[in-house]
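Two quick folds needed for the group meeting slides. Do the first one here.
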Amino acid sequence: MSELPLALFTVFASIGAGAFCALALAGFSVQLDEGQQARVDRASWIPLAFVIIGFICAFFHLSNALNAVNVVAGLGRSPLTNEICAGSLFTIVAIIYVALANAGKLSAGARKGLLGVTGVLGLVFGLFMGLAYMIGTVQSWNSWATIAEMVGLTLVGGAAMGSFVLASAEGASKASGALTAMGYVGAIAAIAGGACMAAMVSGEGTALYAGSNLVAAAMPALVIGCVCVIAAAVAAGAAWKRGASVGAVAIVLVVIGALALRLAFYAM
C-alpha cells in the first residue's frame, strides 16, 4: 500500500491518456456536426482531469515535493525521467487542444492534426509508463509483461472513457467498431501482462521471499482486476447503443480493475 500513490497515478493517467487515443481514432473516422462536436469538446475536460489527478497522486509518493523538479536531470538515461517528460509533453499538448477546441479556435484541419498528435502522445505516454518499471534490479518487473499491462490499461481505459465522452454524439457511432476493438485488445494485453508476470514470479525467489507466496497474496487482486477489466471492455462496447450511463459504468469498472491489477503488480 506504500505504492498506492504511484498505483493511482498509473491508473488515472493511463485512462486519461488512452481517452485521447480514442478521441483521435474517432476524429479520423467520423465527421461530427457543430453541435455534436461542441458536446464532445466540453466532455473532453473529463479525461484531461483524470490525467491531472494522476499527476497530483504521484506527488504524494515524494518525501519532498520540491524534489520533483530534479526529475528532468535524468532525461535519456532514467526510465522514470523519460516517463515524466513524456507525460508532461502529452499533458501540455492535451491542455492546448482542449482549450482551443472549447474556445472554437480550431479549423477542421487544425483540429484533426492537433488531436492526432495528442492521441499519439497519449499512447507514447502509456508505453513509457510501462518502460519506467524496466529496472534490472527488480527481476519481477523487468519483462515485456510490464509494458503489455500498462499499454493494455491505456487502451481499455481509453475505450471506456471514449465511449462515455463520445456517446452524446450520435454521429460518432460510426467509430464504435474501432473503439470497441481497442477496448478488447487493451483488456487482453493488460490481462496477459498480469498473468504472465504472475507465472514468472511464481518460479522466482530470493533469500527473503518465495515468488509463489507473493503470487498467492496478490491473486485476489489479480482476479478482481481481470474480471473488472473484461467487464469494462464489454460495457464500453455496449455504451454505443445504451448511452453515456453505460459508459460511466465502464469507467468505474476500468478504474477498479486497473487499480486492482496495479496493486497486484506492486505486491509481486
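Then this one, please, same format:
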Amino acid sequence: MFRRARSRRYFHPGAERARMAQARLRVDIPDGPWVGDVSREFPDARFQVLTATPEDGAGFALVRVTADDTAPILDAIDDHETITHSSVMAEDDGMVTVQVEALVPLLQTVARRAGVPIEMPVEIRDGVARVDVTGDHERVAKFGDALRDVGAEFEVEYVQQRVNPGGSLTERQREVLFEAVDRGYYDVPRECTLTEVAEHVGIAKSTCSEVLQRVERTIVREFVDDLPRRPIDFESPEDDGIERIQ
C-alpha cells in the first residue's frame, strides 16, 4: 500500500502545466516619466524600484537611490512635474530610500496593459531600465507591443523558458519519484537501489521500475515540448530581425 502523499509536494493530477517564459529587457525610458528624466540628469546614480503599485492615473513606488551626493537628486525628484508626493523613508551615507507618488507610471501601466508582472527590483541607470517580466509567451510578447505603443525603445537581453516538468504525473508516480529522489536513487553514485525504493514504497521491484520509467519518459517529453523552438516575436513587421525595437 502506498503511504500518504506529502501535501506540500503534491498537485492535482489534472492541473494544467505552466508554460511560461521569462524575459529580461533593457528599456530606454522616453522623456516624461520622472525616473527616466532624473536618472538621465544624474547618469552616475543608481535607481532601484523596490516596490510599485499602479493606481488609476498614478503610481506609488518605493525607490532606492545610490549616489555620491543624493541631496540634489531628491530635489530633482521632488521638483519633477509628474511627482505629486515624495518622502524620504530611510537615509544613509550615499544611499536614500524614497517613497514617491507619480503621474505617468510608464512601466507599471505597460505591465498592466500586457497582463504580466514586473519582477522587482527594477534597476535604472541613465534613463535605461533593466526589466524582468514573466508570463506566457503571448503576454510577454504583448509587453513588448505595449512598450512600442508608448514610444519606448528596448533591447532583449534574453528570453528563457520556465517550465514545470512533471505536471501531468499521477499521484502514484509522484510518490514513487519523490521516494527515489529522497533516498538517493538518482544521486551519483546511487545511495539507494531500486529494490530499496520499492520496499520503502511497498510495491514490487518490477512495478517500481515500470513506474519510474514512465515518470522519466513523461518528464523528458514535457521538458522538450516546453523548450522554445523559435524565439518570442518582439519584433515589428517592419523590423529586419534586429532586437532593438523602435
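Slide caption for protein two: Confidence is low (pLDDT under 50) at residues 1-18, 237-246.
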